[in-house]
Amino acid sequence: MTTPPGYPADFVPLRTDRLTLRPLRAEDATALHRLVNDWEVAKTLARVPFPYKRSLADEWILSTWAQIAAGEAWHLAIVGEEPGPDGPAETLIGCVALTLDADRRQAELGYWVGRRYWGHGVATEAAGRLCRWALAQLEITGIHASALRDNARSAAVLRRLGFRPAGEAMQTFLSRGAPMPVNLFHGGREELTGDAGPAAGAAAAPLAGPPLMLVAAVALVDADGRVLLARRPEGKPLAGLWEFPGGKVKPGETPEAALIRELKEELDIDVSASCLAPFTFASHAYEKFHLMMPLYLCRKWGGTVRAVEGQALAWVRPKQFGGYAMPPADRPLVAMLQDFL
Ligand SMILES: Nc1nc2c([nH]c(=O)n2[C@@H]2O[C@H](COP(=O)(O)OP(=O)(O)OP(=O)(O)O)[C@@H](O)[C@H]2O)c(=O)[nH]1
Question: How far apart, in whole angstroms, are the C-alpha atoms of residue 107 and residue 139?
Answer without folding.
Answer: 10
